[in-house]
Amino acid sequence: MNTNTINFSDIFKSSFLENTTSFSVVDSLISLAAAFAVGLFIYVVYKKTFAGVMYSHTFSISLIVMTMATALIIMGVSSNVLLSLGMVGALSIVRFRTPIKDPMDIVYIFWAVASGILCGAGFIPLVIIGAILIGLVLLFFINRLTVENPFLLIVRYNDPAIETSLAHIVSAQAIKHSVKSKSVTPGNDLEMIYEIRVKKNDTGFVNKISSMEGVQSAMMLSYDGNFTA
Q1: What's the CA gap between 65 and 188, in Å, rounded?
Q2: Claim: this prediction has a pTM higher than 0.70
Q3: What is the pLDDT of residues 50-92, one digit of tens each?
Q4: 136-143: long-range contacts at Cβ-Cβ below 8 A with a sequence spacing of 24 or more?
Q5: Contact (Cβ atoms closer than 8 angstroms) between residue 214 and residue 162
Q6: How far is C-alpha 106 from the chain's CA centre?
Q7: Are the CB atoms for 174 and 196 separated by under 8 Å?
Q8: I need a labelling partner for 104 at 20 to 30 A (CA). Which of 9, 16, 59, 200 fits?
């Protein structure tokens, strides 16, 4: 009579334990540590190159977490084909509705996701080299190179006779200028909008315009919505 013996390993045999035994803790910690270091580097570069209206500390922190989370996902799906298919299906239903105000924020998000993918796949030297080169490019082009940004000069006045003097002041102070629009309200109030480029963001002449007789207000507005004078 043959009897089948069942040992301890047969009782607790499962696919979960098999996946656990194939899981390398050391490699995972190295990948996560590399993802954290690269994410921290992205955080520093973003903070140094930020030139928007309001700096968001939570967004910069999310770049670090995004890099580590992406690396974690890649490490999980790389060892299991079924899990990778399920993860793709699960992520396909996710919708991010947070508006991106600055196009450069998309660059940093893509950089964080790409770095996380490479860290999870084990291409750590490639991530480090790429992070250094991308960081240098961003620091150079954003902080080193100065660009003469255009502004909108909005002048409200009630005396048409000052238009000649107004045009003379604008042409003397601006590198380039052009009239974008002129409007007249029923109360005989006028509004002139100039597109101008000034030297080193010099806005002192706006005070001179606002002090002219007949001028109700003078405002300079950058295209991203920042009030400068």
Answers
A1: 57
A2: no
A3: 876 677 888 889 999 999 988 888 887 776 655 555 565 555 5
A4: 138/45, 138/49, 139/45, 139/48, 139/49, 142/49, 142/51, 142/104, 143/48, 143/49
A5: yes
A6: 5
A7: yes
A8: 200
pLDDT in tens, 172-227: 878 887 888 888 877 778 888 888 887 766 777 888 888 888 888 888 877 654 44
Residues 120 and 167 in one domain: no
Helix axes 124-139, 103-121, angle to 10 degrees: 160
Beta strands (DSSP E) in the chain are 150-157, 174-184, 190-198, 215-222
Q: What is the per-residue burial (b if ≥16 Cβ within 10 Å, else e) of 133-158? A: ebbeebeeeeeeeeeeeebebbbbbe
As a dihedral over the C-alpha atoms of residue 104, residue 108, residue 111, residue 116, rounded to 10 degrees, the angle is: -160
Do the domain assignments include residue 114?
Answer: yes
At 223, which amino acid appears?
A: Y
My answer on whether 25 and 111 are in the same domain is: yes
Instruction: List Cα–Cα distances, 209 to 162, 216, 224, in angstroms.
Output: 10, 10, 23
Q: What is the residue range of 82's domain?
A: 8-143
Residue whose entry in the numeric block shows the structure tokens 């480029």: 197
